[in-house]
Amino acid sequence: MRGGDAHPAPSPPPSSRAPALTILALAQFTTTLEFSIVHVALPAIDRDLHLGPVLLQWVPSAYAVFLAGLLLVSGRLAERFGPLRMFRWAVLLLAAASALAAVAPDSATLLGARAAQGAAAALLQPAALGLLQHAVPDPAARARAFAAWSAAGATGLAVGAAVGGLLTLVSWRWTFAVTVPLLLPCAAGALFRLRAPATPACHRAVPVAAALLGTGAALAVVTALTVIAGTGRPGAATVLVCAAAVVLPAVFLCHEARAQRVLVDRALRRCRNVRLGTAVAALYMASAGSTYYLLTLLLQQVHGRTAFAAGVAFLPLTVSVAVAGPLAGRLLHGRSPARVACAGFALCAAGLFGLSAVVDAPYPVMLPALVLTGLGNGVVFTALFVLGTTGVPAGLRGSAGGLLTTGQYVAGAVALALLTLVLGPGVDATRIGLCLVLTAAAGTLGFLVTARRALTEAQYGPGWP
């Protein structure tokens, strides 16, 4: 049996798959919700805790960086100690960290709690993927389950932006506290409904050094961009941090090339779909995934809306994502995931270019572009996990999913830091429009990358060499 899963069981019958998928989809919904729900609350958090515009970006970025940096090593921990045990501990840690963030008396406590939330989400993701594979062993049914699980994540990102405004009307602290009741069904399900896979224990060594280097590299890059945005001029601290942002990623890459205990499995690096899926995940976060932050600034700081009004303004985007996720799941039946993702990126790019042109316009004029962006958002997010895990050996699917999420959140944190640098100290419609053009360019690149794969598959078939 797997270490830590005390009561392994054979594959569950079909009648038990729906409850398991519901529990795992709710967990995925909660982890993505917790990333986006704070965006609308950022101005209120700043007023209470006085973080300042540069440090404020670390409220979402601390979550993203620690999630991305610890995700792959968490996959090894799930293999070592069992996905069910890891899932249980991750749910408890995420609930505790969310409760701490909700009562944080100062900025240091809040950012520490956000980092702990990211670490807990990192433990939860590969464990959930391992349990999902066990719950749905049939390949065709598993593809549908992955689509549903991914759609739950896309919906969580969109719902967070709308619900965040409503909760901030009471207090920004509720944007963190709301996670706790959402996790209660996950905890109950982990105790009474989910079953541990009946597979041998994995005794592969956990690559601690590689994990520390990977997390340090991501932190160094985002910190360097933050320092540059905050100081605007070179200095000893800026030079030191920028040097670390160059050296640590280089050392990490050298370590991955030569070491025996690597973070990214070498067999995984050879999988075409994993490489493409990771690129798609990164471009998704640099395009549609960055929309929530930019729209929050536009609606509240430029248009002068309250947090509640901004949350209401997100509703068309939220509904579009919620509709597009299940639609993409149906499109994936019998269609190439690359073709579906390509269509999603086309919608995203069109919507983001449209938004960049109407930043000064009344809200009704922005609606068509918001809807297009939301539809593309839901389609790409749903397709990318299916794309990135298709054709991957069974034993590597959990690690593949972890790598996709790592690419997603590293890109999200870096994109947020870059956008903060472009926005500068004075946020206005012109600068936000420029940032939307940059996100649209990332969406266009995603379209080109997936279109190339779709055309290649159309010419040579899915199994092209």
TrEMBL record:
Taxonomic lineage: Bacteria, Bacillati, Actinomycetota, Actinomycetes, Pseudonocardiales
UniProt-annotated location(s): Cell membrane
GO annotations of cellular component type: plasma membrane
Transmembrane segments: 54-74, 86-104, 116-134, 146-168, 174-194, 206-229, 235-255, 276-295, 307-328, 340-359, 365-388, 400-423, 429-449
GO molecular function: transmembrane transporter activity
Name of this protein: Predicted arabinose efflux permease, MFS family
Any single Pfam family the record assigns to this protein: MFS_1
Gene3D superfamilies hit by this protein: MFS general substrate transporter like domains
The organism's place on the tree of life at top rank: Bacteria
Keywords assigned: Cell membrane, Membrane, Transmembrane, Transmembrane helix, Transport
Membrane topology category: Multi-pass membrane protein
Organism encoding this protein: Pseudonocardia ammonioxydans
InterPro entries: MFS (IPR011701), MFS_dom (IPR020846), MFS_trans_sf (IPR036259)
Domain Major facilitator superfamily (MFS) profile, first and last residues per copy: 20-458
